[in-house]
Amino acid sequence: MNGRPYVREVRTASWYFGRWRDLHHMLNEISSIFIGGYALILLWGVKSLAAGEQAYLAFLDGLTSPLSLTFHWVALGFTLLNSVSWFGVTPKAMPVQIGDEFLPGHYIAIGHYVAWFCVSLVVLVVSGVFSNG
Amino acid sequence: MSHRTIDLEVMRYRPEQDDEPWVQTYKVPCEEDWVVLDALIYVKDNLDGSLSYRWSCHMAVCGSCGMMINGEPALSCKTFIRDLPGDVIRVEPLTNFPIERDLVVVMDDFIEKLQRVKPYIIRDESKPISEGEHRQTPAQLKKFKQYTLCINCLCCYAACPQYALIPEFIGPAALTLAHRYNQDSRDQGWEEREDVVATNEGIWDCAFADACSIVCPKHVDPASAIQQMKISSTLSWYKNLIGLGGKKR
Amino acid sequence: MEVITTDIAIVGAGGAGLRAAIAVAEAAPDLKVALISKVYPMRSHTVAAEGGAAGVIKSEDSLENHFHDTVSGGDWLCDQDAVELFIEQAPKELIQLEHWGCPWSREADGRVAVRPFGGMKIERTWYAADKSGFHILHTLFQTSLQFPTIDRFDEYYCTDLLVEGGRCQGLTAMEMRTGRIKVFRAKAVIIAAGGAGWMFPFTTNGAVKTADGMAMAYRAGVPLKDMEFVQYHPTGLPGTGILLTEGCRGEGGILVNKDGYRYLQDYNLGPPDPWPRKKAMELGPRDRLSQAFWHEQQKGRTVSTKWGDVVHLDLRHLGEKKIDERLPLVRDLARSYVGADPVHELVPVRPVVHYMMGGIDTNIDAATAMPGLYAAGECACVSINGANRLGSNSLTELLVFGGRAGRHAAEYARKTTHLTESLADQLGEMAAQRVTELFHKEDQGESLSVLRGEMNKTLESGAGIYRTEDTLQETCKKLAELRARYRCLHLDDKSKVFNTQLVYTMELGSMLEAAHAMAHSALQRKESRGSHQRLDYTERDDDNFLKHSLAYYAAEEDPRIDYQDVVITRSQPAARVYGGAES
Questions:
Q1: Alpha carbon C145 to chain centroid distance?
Q2: C334 CA to centre of own chain
Q3: Are residues C157 and C34 in the same domain?
Q4: Residues 6+ apart with CB under 8 A from C76
Q5: Chain C residues with CB-CB distance to B1 below 8 A
Q6: pLDDT tens digits in sequence order for chain B, 249 residues long
Q7: Phi, psi angles (nearest 5°) of residue B76
Q8: Domain count, chain B
């Protein structure tokens, strides 16, 4: 006999394995580790560039290691997951009201995809992916 | 009318007798158009008068009968037995709340938080009744109308992973109500509410899991309200930073 | 025994209770309010009102129109001084609610929009889509949160009034989470505990509407007035009894029988065209429409379904856009509970018990005959509703008279003193005894659900839409039997914590008392007026019955029925004309 309201414990380490919705949320949360890691690698690259050609070449060489490639593929996967999740919910965060009515949510999501595509294109053009040689 | 007999598994907890919750199974002959609440009423009237649960309107507007049905928070008066798979239905009290008894949870925490967000019109000067109503266009009404539809059933709190881990989190329904008043053209209380909601335990504890909006039986979309508040709070913070003043409106 | 001292105790935290609490807090910030309710405020049944609240706002409308619609709608049983006050205060209260944030639906220019309701000459129903009661309740509840003098006692079931020296000086209530009885010592008490639809088997009312407030006052010696007048709403969903608002018809919906025929034209409500037209056909008063259903049923022109006989509500011609904008809840409810989408299909409906015109006898100030006791809302009878309430007057009534109850109770409280603590404790113990006894009854084979079922059945068969001497006699006899059997009812749940079996048992006790008063009031009213229709006395009898009935509690005996004159100021009783003449 307890005599008091019963408080159910939350399994702090494993609660999100119970349902896909929660797991999906945690995967999105965990993606921050990989995106953060990628940012650190990028910073490291900038630092080695500043340190001279040799350091930068060593950095580039390091990127081709199997460990690095694995990390980048995983990070890309998480980034895509996170982007798709975020774009899916952007209509909630940024509703657009025109007159009495709200713009249907998918317009806003599509707008984000279009912007994403354009920015990516600019980055690719600037980085010379499409230039000959 | 066709019958279908289901095993209704009900989480029981009687604080004067039990150390912890346990599951009791009742065989319930259900009519074709019954909701889960009807099955509980059948149990109470015919099988076990000691089963406790809250309910009143049976039309999804009073918000009393939120509970976990097959693991998801839902209104038992709006969950049709015909829509549930199999012949076993499991009902439990809403998660993330202490169990008072059986399917009745303690909701003091929500009531305190609701009061804290100042969910009422705040104005510098109130308008005399003799001057009639405030003008509010259909567009201005539409801006916040959706956020007025919350019935305080607490399904969103039961679904929210952040509330589960951080009990101090003000949570979806209460924050949504703050946003509802912030967005109302008649209100001038944004700054007062900002002190309460633009805090760690307020909007910034929300991780945008969106679970609240997924389970909301009235399609209020609390997640959207909270994200919009995050944006307006952030903008106001930057405006303050560069000396433009933080007042939103 | 714990004694809680307050200035004004309010029983019930629905629309009327909340409005009263705010009125006290505003008018007398020095007075403490205890707002006591068996459910959290937002669960109160005000929440389920759909269509809207009446108040004159359009320039082509007038207070005079609202007065006449209300008085003729009530078949001249309304107290006309109360109606005059009511219609004059109505727009002010609705504007006040607007200032508190109620999301009323709007015209394009930003003004509040209004829709027509049954029995209304010009549209004056303020609405918030079809969730008007929901928005009114939540607006009042949320507004009440800013007043520090309002102390809420949520999930406390009030059991008895404390009466000493002929004055009401507080009450006892059970805290449901602990089962403990507490005494509230108060200078004044306001009962705002709602109606009693659960006496009947088929009702739009939520399960909380169990006559608690009415019975509490009645047992304390305050008469229940006009209890025989029970409103059937013509359009409830079969099976569940869920309400489909009169707004459906206000927006242009029609009712047809199994032949697709607009049968109301056969009952002095036609001609059907042109449509829509105020105070005609589907926009006739509720009593007439519900009675017409009964006649159609007798003629075999209703539709048989698995839920019993129905007629059809046709909204299809309104179109999806209008239905979604004005009647979104109706669409949702019809689709969910009877599987009919009103955009494309006919919706089955039938009359269903909706509202008690009668209740605790109060005067125009919401005061009862017992000093210190006030009542407002559905549990009270002022009476502005007479023999048949006009649709959308009830939400306004709980605002106008809830507010008045608060202000008048505050005024009274200022002039009076508290009961001594020891006396409060003593009276509390006596009241607690009544509850404790319920736990100690031997099992004599009576069951709560069986008794409730028998009460439901006898009220429906004896005191339904049409009544006769024989059926009413039978019902009175049955209720006397049920009251005796109730005393043998035993609890198998002995728990103190959230014991709903105990609460349901006390609720059943309340309902049996109110039902008893109702059946005897109906038996003695040998005429047909408004919602009280007798097959053996088919005409209105103003010579003998232009009077309010008053039922006085007589413990084990049958109630004593007395009469009180109706206040008539400017409208002499006349024929109720709907259909064409006035439109």
A1: 25
A2: 23
A3: yes
A4: C386, C387, C542, C546, C566, C568, C571, C573, C574
A5: 306
A6: 567 899 999 999 999 999 999 999 999 999 989 999 999 999 999 999 999 999 999 999 999 999 999 999 999 999 999 999 999 999 999 999 999 999 999 999 999 999 999 999 999 999 999 999 999 999 999 999 999 999 999 999 999 999 999 999 999 999 999 999 999 999 999 999 999 999 999 999 999 999 999 999 999 999 999 999 999 999 999 998 888 765 544
A7: -70, -20
A8: 2
Q: Do B98 and A93 touch (CB under 8 A)?
A: no
Asked, for residue B249, whether it belongs to a domain, the answer is no
Q: Are residues C45 and C182 in the same domain?
A: yes
* One domain, residues C469 and C422: no
Residue type at position A12: T
Q: B106 — contact with chain A (CB < 8 Å)?
A: yes
* Beta pairing, strands B72-75 & B88-92: unpaired
Which chains lie within 8 Å of chain C at 3 or more CB pairs, if any? B
Q: Note whether A98 contacts B: Cβ–Cβ < 8 A.
A: no
Annotated active-site residue in C45, C249, C516, C534: C249
Cα B84 from chain centroid (whole Å): 22
Range of the domain at C412: 3-229+357-426
Pairing of strands C150-154, C167-175: unpaired
Which one of A4, A7, A8 would you mutate to disrupt binding with B, by most B Cβ within 10 Å of its Cβ?
A: A8
Spatial distance between the Cα atoms of C382 and C384, rounded to a whole number of angstroms: 6
Q: Are residues C395 and C456 in the same domain?
A: no
DSSP string, A83-110: HHHHHHHHHHHS--EETTEEPPHHHHHH
Give counts: helices (H), strands (E), chain A: 4, 2
* Last residue of one domain, picked from the residues B77, B105, B133: B105
Q: Are C267 and C577 in contact (CB under 8 A)?
A: no
C147 contacts chain B (CB < 8 A): no
CA distance B102 to C177: 12
- Look up C233 and say whether it is catalytic: yes
DSSP B44: I
Q: Which of B133, B196, B219 to probe by mutation at the C interface, max C CB count within 10 Å?
A: B133
Residue type, C545: F
Shared domain check, B112 and B98: no
Query: Which among A8, A29, A91 has the least Cβ separation from residue B207?
Result: A29
Going by C-alpha positions, the residue among C240, C196, C150 that lies closest to residue C514 is: C196
Q: Which of B64, B87, B105 is the last residue of a domain?
A: B105
Catalytic one of C135, C233, C312, C407: C233
Contact assignment for B120 to C492 by CB distance below 8 Å: no
Domain tally, chain C: 3
Nearest-by-Cβ selection for B227 from A21, A93, A97: A93
Q: ipTM, 2 decimals?
A: 0.97
